[in-house]
Prior knowledge:
By secondary structure, the chain is α/β, with parallel strands linked by helices. It folds into three domains: 3-10 and 435-524, Methane Monooxygenase Hydroxylase, Chain G, domain 1 (Up-down Bundle); 22-247 and 361-416, FAD/NAD(P)-binding domain; 253-357, Alpha-Beta Complex (Flavocytochrome C3, Chain A, domain 1). Helix content is 30%, strand content 18%. The protein has helices spanning 33-42, 78-88, 95-114, 148-162, 230-237, 267-271, 297-311, 325-331, 333-341, 398-412, 441-455, 462-477, 487-508, and strands at residues 21-29, 48-51, 68-69, 129-130, 140-141, 166-169, 173-180, 186-194, 198-209, 242-243, 248-255, 275-277, 316-319, 351-360, 363-365, 377-379, 384-385, 459-460, 517-518, 530-534, 542-545. Strands 1, 2, 6, 7, 8, 9 and 16 form a seven-stranded mixed beta sheet that branches.
Amino acid sequence: MHAVFDQRRYLIPFRATLLPQIFTDVLVIGAGVAGMRAALAAAEHGDVIIALKGEIKDSNTYWAQGGIATVLADDDSLDSHIQDTLTAGAGLCDEPIVRQVVEAAPSMMRELIDWGMRLDRDAGNALDLGREGGHSRNRIVHAHGDATGRELSVTLERQCRRHDRVRMFSDCFVLDLITLDGASPRCLGAITHHPKYGLQVIWAKATILASGGCGQVYRESTNPPLATGDGLAIAYRAGAELADMAFMQFHPTTLYVAGASRSLISEAVRGEGAFLVDRNGYRFMQDHHEQWELAPRDVVARAILTQMARTNYSHVFLDCRQMGSERFAQRFPGIFELLRKFDIDPGRDLIPIHPSAHYMIGGVLTDRFGRTNITGLYACGEAACTGLHGANRLASNSLLEGLVFGRLAGQVCCELLDGQPPGPAKIISDVRESGRAELDLSDVRSSLRSVMWREVGIQRDGRHLEEVAEMFDFWASYTLDKIFDERRGWEVQNLLLVGALMTRAASWRAESRGTHFRMDVQQPQDQFRGHDVWVRGQAQPRITPVRSPAESTAPTR
């Protein structure tokens, strides 16, 4: 990172003030699957506050269509699920972590069923298992056809609301973590902002970061508007290690209608037999992978871009006509209603689709329990880098990872709850007003999202990445030193930091692997077979090797 991103301890200054203070045992930042599961586990040991940036429905979890991958069928096996995950991860998965998550999946599903989660079943009342790209067996559990995330969110929220040790703070934006610096830095909570109550300090013995992804750093994204990478930015500013930041997964099939948001068309649609065709009706995936439409997502996304270039067209099409309208509406009711708004009948019409940014594979580096390099700070879900996904996430492993690591982080944070509570202390920000000109925030946000899509998207080039890094330095020089009083300004500062980190990591990784495809180096390179770890104040990453099954899975700091 260039010096402009490391110029002061807190890069989000706020106006000088004495802040109201709140105390809790555990602060959970984020209310997706990982955050709520972590809160439930932590509540067995202490009092918990969940800080939601918006509402439950604003999380990536809530809008997840596909499902949860788990081995339940007699013709399936844990080893098969593990191998599918390793294959998709393109040599960067930590196999002990993969095994840990896959083996925990059946028990997590039983727990959700006990909590009342309504899953789709067949005529014999057995769980109806679907299949998605990269999976060799039908093992995807889903709910209401294409509304698994919504049902999961409702189930977990119900459990949280019932628990007398869990409080949920909606519209609570986290500006920064509070840490004690030194040889062994420690997290003591966070500074937050609420539109009604203003700035506050939440002191916590343990803080769990489960803030989700950063899809809004791209112009084309499936993520909801609040997914601006805030958790990644605050962790980096606090000194946490971030890893594998070059790897953003692009979902191959999002609805492409001019002027409309990029709504997801679930991979499960292809799992039910839909296929991809170009403007001429040619089924092109046969030219790219033996699994055709059920190839891993990175393969399908690049194949779509290639075919768009070959046909000189802005999109391709998803052909679901063989399913018929009635069957499609029954299996995918949410998608059917979405398409109907645009006068598209999937039983009669081709669905225009285009790839979009979907899931951040990299994030805050953790050990196998969710610990970070900062004492008192844990991370889980999309905001974390656990080593499960490697260089490319296998479909429907994300909700599973959130459940498993959410529970682990919530359980292990009890190691800090016997100590003395942090605070109270005066938190005063007295930052000198900037003498630099101010850039238009809307223009900066729009420009950075556009350049990320063009140059740090599905296909990248080393020379262009260096130019993008210089652009981020320029924007940062006129934006990171400004004092803002509302969320919009803080989000732009966070997007700049996260976008710059992703660009630096993409520039450093001079190879093509998984979701990361470099036009100038189109093959994997052995020297990059490792996790690149970035920390504030260091210009180059530290490289950690991929863990093999023979290596210890003991917790590390």
